[in-house]
Write a structure and sequence with these properties.
heterodimer, A: about 260 residues, mainly alpha, about 0% strand, globular, B: about 325 residues, alpha/beta, Alpha-Beta Plaits, 6-stranded mixed β-sheet, 11 helices
Chain lengths: ~260, ~325
């Protein structure tokens, strides 16, 4: 498995993967952090809390305020992960490189496992760097707006930041499982990425909005959003994590079986 | 000559420079190997016995089953019938032999944004191979100077050479190359021949698939012909060509001697016909010297005497019973 991991790591150093992966992965949290702080208001307006358009200083001065913007867009990091994994797996088919790779590593489960772990590390780095830059920006912008950062450096603040990283990372990895599965199943980035984005953005929202309102507690995108936020109104953190682990295990088992059985 | 079943030429009484097919020890041995894709029987019960140390040619028209057979041998597709062994191991367990096999499958496929060297590094790391092999194989295919350029800037010929370099990375005992001369210029083709002969000289068995019959004839000493998923011939190329029609062409100094020369041939039981100012005799190579001797004895001076042999292309179509227009299609189609 180390061979597949190490080999994939070389491919991930392509400028396109670095540029696209880190570019998209950093863009949303950094932008969200800047906008959250710059648009923060001293007193509640609109709905008066963070579900409204503007966040209050009081909200940002909580220990969780440091990563407020990051948490809000952590599911978007997940979508970046979804596309990254789908592209990495399906490109091997569409570029015709899979056969060359399987000649060098015919043990297909190890091949899949090593490749997946390399992508997990890659998305992990994206999450850590994205949170790191967002935190740095938050610390840089907050004093200028008169927002107190005292709670951010408390043990609770640090703990909240680490939890935000963990939740965003777990969500990104689980998004990645679904992306990898679609990549292997559909064998083309031009098909797998649109299908993935279509399901995880409008389709599931349409299902829960118009067909099955109870689906928000069971369908993967809602659960992933809940996981990334550390739990929300749709599902508790533990329920989301449990369900997603079950889904991911089932999907991974199916994809491994398909990949092993299918002609290359 | 027509063959309705797989034909093997017996080399036991020839001076062939390679061991005869023995079955058990060949690096590639297959028995009734088949692959069916729903309605299509792509490979239909083929028996293969490739001797060790040869450059083996694998020819057949487009869609004949060459690439599927190669994929079966590399464990990339699973057989629906029969068995095969590569380097003594079943194709059901490719992990047991692929470390000793190098392969170039169909068009060379690489990551265009990575350099040639980095592409080889991907394969080296994946197969846990010696990193030092990268420079060695790049030098072998003369890509050292362009090794650090992105593959998307490479010509087709350079990609082809990089594909061969990738196949040679594991320092293999067996190399399987699918259309390795595609996209190469004449100098590149000559280099590729040299590389393949060099491999065989080092004891490495090479199986090369191509639709260019003249290329196969030039570089291979063993041949497998496949048509409609079936092996229609396998054996030494020399044996195949010897089994085909050979002839002697004689050109007497004086045209009026043609009739007399024809009579000499007929008397010896060799069919002959006058074709312009030459006599074409259906006979083996050894008849040329005898004809020269008899003509001299009859007071006929020959100003030309030539042995003609069937080309591989003629032999191929004799075997596959193709129509007269088919040679173009085989030479031009990319299989």
């Amino acid at each position: 498995m180390w061979g597949a991991f190490s080999s994939e790591w070389v491919k991930l150093q392509r400028r396109s993967m670095l540029g696209w992966g880190f570019g998209a992965g950093l863009f949303f949290p950094v932008l969200a952090t800047i906008l959250t702080i710059e648009r923060a208001v001293r007193y509640p307006t609109f709905s008066g809390d963070h579900h409204g358009i503007r966040v209050t200083y009081a909200t940002l001065e909580q220990p969780t305020g440091l990563v407020h913007g990051v948490v809000d867009v952590s599911s978007l990091i997940g979508l970046v992960s979804l596309c990254l994994f789908a592209a990495a797996f399906s490109l091997e088919y569409s570029q015709g490189t899979l056969r060359n790779l399987l000649v060098r590593e015919p043990r297909r489960t190890r091949f899949l496992g090593g490749k997946f772990l390399a992508l997990v590390l890659f998305i992990g780095l994206i999450v850590i760097i994205a949170v790191g830059i967002s935190v740095a920006i938050a610390f840089a912008l907050a004093p200028g707006k008169g927002i107190s950062t005292a709670a951010w450096t408390s043990s609770t603040g640090v703990n909240d930041m680490l939890q935000a990283i963990l939740h965003a990372f777990l969500a990104a990895v689980l998004y990645g499982v679904f992306g990898a599965a679609l990549g292997v199943l559909l064998r083309s980035p031009a098909v797998s990425i649109p299908v993935a984005v279509a399901y995880f953005l409008p389709i599931e929202a349409i299902i829960t909005g118009a067909i099955w309102s109870g689906g928000s507690n069971w369908l993967p995108d809602h659960l992933l959003v809940a996981l990334a936020h550390g739990g929300n109104g749709d599902a508790t953190y533990s329920h989301a994590l449990l369900m997603l682990v079950i889904y991911a295990a089932a999907v991974a088992a199916g994809i491994v079986a398909l990949f092993r059985a299918r002609d290359a | 000559m027509r063959f309705h079943a797989a034909m093997t030429v017996d080399t036991s009484d020839t001076d062939a420079p390679f061991p005869p097919a023995t079955g058990a020890l060949g690096p590639i041995v297959a028995s009734k190997l088949s692959k069916r894709y729903r309605e299509v029987l792509a490979v239909d019960g083929v028996d293969i016995d490739l001797p060790a140390g040869v450059v083996g040619g694998f020819v057949g028209p487009n869609g004949a089953g060459k690439t599927t057979t190669i994929q079966l041998l590399l464990g990339l597709v699973r057989p629906t019938g029969g068995t095969a062994k590569v380097l003594g191991e079943s194709v059901e367990h490719p992990e047991r032999y692929l470390r000793r096999v190098g392969a170039l499958i169909e068009a060379p496929s690489f990551y265009p944004a990575l350099s040639g060297r980095r592409n080889l590094e991907v394969l080296t790391r994946l197969g846990r191979l010696e990193k030092s092999r990268i420079d060695e194989v790049l030098a072998l295919v003369e890509l050292t100077e362009r090794a650090d350029h992105r593959v998307k800037t490479y010509s087709l010929g350079m990609k082809q050479r990089l594909g061969v370099a990738a196949a040679l990375l594991p320092d293999p005992e067996l190399v399987i190359l699918d259309e390795p001369t595609n996209g190469l210029d004449p100098a590149g083709i000559r280099e590729m021949r040299s590389v393949m002969r060099g491999l065989a000289d080092r004891g490495i068995t090479v199986l090369v698939s191509s639709h260019l019959l003249r290329e196969i004839e030039a570089i291979c000493d063993h041949l497998m012909m496949i048509d409609h998923g079936r092996i229609v011939f396998q054996g030494p190329i020399g044996g195949l060509l010897d089994a085909q029609h050979t002839g002697v062409v004689a050109r007497p100094e004086h045209r009026e001697d043609l009739e007399k020369l024809a009579a000499l041939c007929s008397a010896a039981g060799k069919p002959a016909r006058i074709d312009g100012d030459v006599l074409r005799v259906t006979a083996g190579e050894d008849w040329a010297a005898e004809l020269n001797r008899q003509a001299f004895g009859a007071g006929i001076t020959l100003r030309g005497l030539e042995v003609t042999r069937a080309t591989l292309e003629e032999a191929f179509f004799a075997i596959t019973d193709a129509d007269s227009d088919a040679p173009d299609s085989v030479e031009e189609q990319d299989s």
